[in-house]
Amino acid sequence: MADHSVSAHSKSSPLKLYFGVWATLLLLTYVTYRVAFLELGPFNSVVALVIAAIKATLVALFFMHVWRAGEKFIKAVILTSLFFLLLLLGLTMADYMTRPWS
Amino acid sequence: MSATNVVPQQQFERETYLNKVYGMWSWLLTTDHKRIALLYLISITFFFFIGGFFALLIRLELLTPAGDLVQADTYNKLFTQHGMVMVFFFLIPSIPAVLGNFLVPMMIGAKDLAFPRINLLSWYLYIIGGVIMLHCMMTGGVDTGWTFYVPFSTNYTNTKFVEAGIAIFIAGFSSILTGLNFVVTIHRMRAPGMTWSRLPLFIWAHYATSIIQLLGTPVIAITIVLVACERALHLGIFDPRLGGDPLLFQHLFWFYSHPAVYIMILPSMGVVTEIIPCFSRKRIFGYSFVAFSSIAIAVFGFLVWAHHMFVAGMSVYAGLVFSFLSYAVAVPSAIKVFNWTATLYKGSIHYDAPMLYAFGFLGLFTIGGLTGLFLAALGINVHVTDTYFVVAHFHYIMVGGAVMGYLGGIHFWWPKISGKLYPEGWARLAALIVFLGFNLTFFPQFVLGYMGMPRRYWDYSHMPEFQVLNVLSTAGATVLGVGYLLPMIYLLWSMRYGKPASDNPWNAAGLEWKTSSPPPTDNFKEEPVVTWEAYNYEELDAPPQALEVPVG
Predict the structure, then answer these.
(1) For chain B, is the Cβ count within 10 Å smaller at the N or the C terminus?
(2) CATH code, domain carrying B535
(3) pLDDT higher for B542 or B544?
(4) ipTM, 2 decimals?
(5) A100 closest CB neighbour out of B245, B306, B315
(6) Residues contacting residue B288 through CB under 8 Å, at least 6 positions apart
């Protein structure tokens, strides 16, 4: 990373923030790894998914600059993507949850 | 209104995007959207004829009931590679990457797409994917079917699936980049006065297509990665022995691959929506309905994927939901068909070649769409799943719909692209041959399928009564092949020997016709300012003195 060119952008230097987010992501990865060895029954998946969702949110907010994104269009794009993810998961679950043998 | 036809005959050659610079590198490193469109045109035509060659071999094999032309394994590879090449290397890039690339900036009055270098990158990704696909086919090929269902693709096939998967993965990114470019261009680069409600409907159709490309294609990319990982590392995502679910593959695959059908057909609808008002000399009927039905198709298209899985072991409840939603997606398509026919009503209809293709599109798309409703009905679906009925249905949409629209568009904008007129008589003849050949090929397949002939079978000697219809179909494929070769020959011929085209040979509305043919590199001499609605054919055709009265 060329730290001398960061100030070219109008916003304040984000390097500390980026490394902070990166450290948080690594920490959460470690937590996921450790939790996988605990016997939580069905909650193993729940915990893993919650942590993954937090990590994805962090990446979107900070690495993809959604935090402080002024434009409505960017927010619309994010919401649309989430909506389509919801469609994929939701309608697939409409199948899985209603199978007679499961 | 500026009079474009009073420009004096110039002795020197006018500078256009075609003659501004010469040499191979001026093409291979160009960032001009018009030149990239031509690069795409050449490449997809190449793949179209490769895919067509496989189709011809398939039809020749099915000419006789016994499997006597090729081995069974070879036949599996033929239909797989026919499907993969036609879907991923012809149909998906066809209209967006060629006509869309050429026309989207011109129709909205821009100098180029928003990201010209990304546009060039998308062509290179397409070529890299295409070369890998060619290498895969020449060094053994792949036999999974274009749908590469698990567990066959993960656990059993010993052909080169991973290589084909990489090819499709890379070509997919080419498609994403095209979609990204179009979305940003349409949002950001419209000329002054070009409001959303004044956009040509071709642009609306491409906007809807781009949404699907952006949101859908990553899903097929990750699906390919998962299959490759499962194949190499036995991850257990799709294998039930490892806790996976093979149906999950079908969910993921069709989440992209059903909307992919709309990537193919929406641009074609956009082309037809330009052609029909021009050759009826009428404003489009129901502009906003046609515009928003494109968006509705893009959104609803994402809600219907599991109608490909009714007999795959999905729950009955999900089957009901997806059957209902599949009926719902027919509504915006029907809105479009009714609006096109209403545009024709009391129009002054001209039967030029682009219009013949548009008529072909209307009829064939309607048949394809209605048989889609048959298939969306759960009961009938069980009866005809994996038969030639399905094959006929989607060829009516993809060939009868998408390819008809593509050819119509190529003819319609050929004077603008090449600056030359194509031979009209030959073009009408070719349109007729394509229409007849198409129906002769695929209508018998509806009957065959309903009688119970399964798709992807190489030998039907236990059912010799299927032969008559198969012979008809193969004969039709030959006629269709001639119909596709003809335009390639006379369009190439016209580039050298065709009459020079005026700027607006069809007297069509739309900004792309207000610049010269072929256009200069920057598209317009000065930035256009739009003060009129799209499809103002009544104004265009008004007697000239009526327009000059207020000035005098």
Answers:
(1) C
(2) 1.20.210.10
(3) B542
(4) 0.76
(5) B315
(6) B197
pLDDT in tens, B334-357: 999 999 999 999 999 999 999 999
Question: Does A88 sit within 8 Å of B219, measured CB to CB?
Answer: yes
Give the structural domain span for B443: 28-546
**Min Cα separation B252/chain A (Å):** 8
Output the six-digit token pair for B332. Answer: 């915006």
Q: Is residue B524 over pLDDT 60?
A: yes
**Where would I find the H helices in B377-418?**
378-384, 388-395, 404-418
> How far does the CA of residue A96 sit from the closest CA of chain B (Å)?
7
**Bridge partners of B454?**
B387
Q: Return the higher-pLDDT residue of B121 and A1.
A: B121
Residue B148 Ramachandran class (φ > 0 left, ψ -120 to 50 alpha, else beta):
left
**Token pair of B307 as six digits:** 């109608």
Among residues B234, B96, B254, the alpha carbon closest in space to that of B177 is found at B96
Least confident of A70-84, B287-301, B448-462: A70-84
With respect to residue B388, please indicate whether it lies within any of the assigned structural domains: yes
Q: Which chain A residues are within 8 Å of B219, Cβ to Cβ?
A: 88
Length of chain B: 552
Q: Which of A45, A91, A93 to mutate to test the interface with B (most CBs of B within 10 A)?
A: A91
pLDDT for residue B58: 96
Contact (CB<8Å) A95/B219:
no
Instruction: Tokens for B254, please give them.
Output: 């069709």
Q: Which positions 169-208 of B are in contact with A (Cβ < 8 Å)?
A: 187
Q: Six-digit token pair at B252? A: 């993921």
Answer whether B389 touches A (CB < 8 Å): no
Contacts of B550 (CB under 8 A, 6+ apart): none
Whole-number Å distance between alpha carbons of B392 and B386: 11
Nearest Cα to B39, choosing from B25, B51, B49, B20?
A: B25
Residue of chain B with shortest Cα separation from A80? B215
Instruction: Determine the pLDDT at residue B548.
Output: 54
Beta bridge partner(s), residue B500 = B420
Tell me what the mean pLDDT of segment B80-87 comes to: 96
Tell me how far apart the alpha carbons of residues B360 and B161 are, in angstroms, rounded to a whole number.
Answer: 37
Domain total in chain B: 1
Query: Is A95–B306 a contact, with Cβ atoms under 8 angstroms apart?
Result: yes
For residue A101, which residues of chain B lie inside 8 Å, CB to CB?
A: none
Determine, yes or no, domain membership for B7: no
Burial of A42 (0-12, 13-18, 19+ CB in 10 A): exposed
Q: Which of B187, B313, B321 sits opposite A94 (nearest CB)?
A: B321
Q: How far apart, in whole angstroms, are the C-alpha atoms of residue B499 and residue B420? A: 6
More confident residue, B22 or B11: B22
Q: How far is CA B73 from the centre of its chain?
A: 30
Q: What is the pLDDT of residue A77?
A: 82
Predicted local distance difference test score (pLDDT) of residue A6? 42
Element (H, E) at B448: helix B424-451
Percent of chain B scored above 70 by pLDDT?
96
Give the span between the Cα atoms of B186 and B444, in whole angstroms.
42
Rounded to whole angstroms, the Cα distance separating A7 from B454 reads: 65
Reported as a pLDDT band with limits 50, 70 and 90, residue B540 is confident
∠ CA B487-B492-B497, rounded to 5°: 115
Within-domain flag for B12: no
Instruction: With a cut of 70, say whether residue A5 has pLDDT above it.
Output: no
* B215 with A88: Cβ contact below 8 A: no
Does residue B289 lie within any of the structural domains?
A: yes
Mean pLDDT of B419-428: 96
